[in-house]
């Protein structure tokens, strides 16, 4: 058993029972180290934190994982910097994930600069975890350090960057983000739609509407509809009145919701047929939209929907009729 000199002083703060457990953590036998790590986790004694930090570099992945979890449970700030050393590609995925989850709860504004330092690497996996952690801090100071990742050849890095942009406080204008609406990767485009909903550039509405109608992925079109629901801009209504007839039911559903935020009587003709959609979610949204329009021209169609097979559609249709008749 080799005990590091740097931890000799820390050992003096432990009682005899804890010392015996800690000493096992430095055994050449992996089972002994596992027993020690599990026991220390159960004890939850903050005086053992230095030894658990040492165990983060144990040859055994299982010991590393228990050490990460133990430090997370103790929630002591001393563990933050050591845990940051566990989110790189040299660690196995389950250790990286556990360390990242721990850091999500432990990091604060004081750790921003340290996180940004970790971006100075060729390790894309480490960059991705840092991007995830930056979302917990929300600081716009991170923007210059992550902006170039939007051009990365790694689609996962581009995706995580575009997601992180929507978490940065006070970021309402960032034109380079619009370019990712045409990214070759579907996941990047999906997340770009949701991020653009937070921005205020003049071209964003046009970009969202184009993606809503033209993107090959129904998930991107759905997210574009969700973004347009947040925008609540009447100029999108022409595109939304088309996309409520999209081939995919989720696109139709969220397009109907978005259209409801800007709906006018001119959309009546496009919406009424949706009371007969194959999916009850769309029929319900259509009934709600017709209630918002409030036109007597919809009374006949809504009256028929009172016999719909889905109770939520019947309820929405009755509410719509009540609005029109009052």
Can you walk through the features of this model?
The chain is mainly α and 326 residues long. It folds into 3 domains: 1-106, Leucine-rich Repeat Variant (Alpha Horseshoe), CATH 1.25.10; 172-262, Alpha Horseshoe (Leucine-rich Repeat Variant), CATH 1.25.10.10; 266-326, Leucine-rich Repeat Variant, CATH 1.25.10. The protein is 61% helix and 0% strand. It is built from 20 helices and no strands. The protein has helices spanning 8-11, 16-24, 30-43, 49-55, 61-74, 80-84, 93-106, 112-117, 124-137, 143-146, 155-165, 186-196, 203-214, 218-231, 237-243, 249-260, 268-271, 280-293, 299-305, 311-325. The longest helix is centred in the last third of the chain and has 15 residues, at 311-325. The mean pLDDT is 94.
List its traits.
326 residues, Leucine-rich Repeat Variant, 0% strand
Specify the overall morphology: elongated
Q: Indicate the structural class.
A: mainly alpha
Number of domains: 3
Q: Which second-level CATH architecture of the largest domain applies?
A: Alpha Horseshoe
**Rg result:** 27 Å
**CATH class descriptor of the largest domain:** Mainly Alpha
CATH superfamily of the largest domain: Leucine-rich Repeat Variant
Count of discrete alpha- or pi-helical segments spanning 4 or more residues: 20
CATH fold group of the largest domain: Leucine-rich Repeat Variant
Largest sheet: none
Mean pLDDT: 94
**Low-confidence segments, ≥5 residues, pLDDT <50?**
none
Rounded to the nearest angstrom, the distance between the terminal CA atoms is 84 Å
Number of strands: 0
Portion in strands: under 5%
Query: Into which percent range does the helicity of residues fall?
Result: 55-70%
Order of helices and strands: HHHHHHHHHHHHHHHHHHHH
């Amino acid at each position: 058993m080799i005990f590091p000199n740097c931890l000799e002083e820390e050992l003096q703060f432990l009682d005899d029972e804890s010392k015996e457990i800690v000493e096992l953590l430095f055994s050449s036998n992996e089972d002994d180290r596992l027993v020690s790590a599990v026991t220390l986790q159960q004890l939850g004694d903050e005086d053992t934190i230095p030894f658990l930090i040492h165990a983060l570099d144990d040859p055994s992945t299982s010991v590393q994982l228990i050490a990460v979890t133990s430090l997370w449970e103790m929630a002591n700030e001393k563990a933050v910097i050591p845990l940051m050393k566990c989110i790189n590609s040299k660690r196995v995925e389950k250790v990286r994930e556990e360390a990242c989850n721990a850091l999500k709860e432990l990091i604060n504004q004081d750790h921003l600069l340290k996180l940004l330092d970790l971006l100075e690497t060729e390790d894309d996996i480490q960059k991705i975890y840092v991007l995830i952690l930056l979302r917990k801090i929300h600081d716009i100071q991170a923007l210059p350090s992550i902006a170039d990742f939007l051009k990365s050849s790694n689609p996962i890095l581009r995706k995580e960057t575009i997601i992180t942009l929507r978490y940065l406080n006070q970021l309402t204008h960032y034109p380079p983000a619009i370019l990712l609406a045409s990214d070759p990767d579907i996941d990047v485009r999906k997340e770009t739609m949701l991020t653009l909903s937070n921005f205020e550039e003049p071209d964003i509405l046009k970009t969202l509407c184009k993606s809503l109608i033209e993107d090959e992925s129904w998930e991107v079109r759905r997210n574009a509809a969700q973004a347009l629901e947040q925008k609540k801009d009447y100029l999108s209504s022409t595109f939304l009145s088309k996309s409520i007839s999209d081939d995919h039911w989720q696109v139709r559903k969220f397009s109907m919701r978005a259209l409801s935020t800007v709906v006018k009587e001119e959309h009546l003709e496009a919406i009424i047929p949706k009371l007969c959609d194959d999916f009850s979610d769309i029929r319900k949204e259509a009934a709600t939209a017709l209630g918002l329009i409030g036109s007597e021209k919809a009374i006949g169609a809504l009256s028929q929907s009172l016999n719909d097979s889905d109770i939520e559609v019947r309820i929405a249709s009755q509410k719509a009729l009540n609005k029109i008749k009052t």
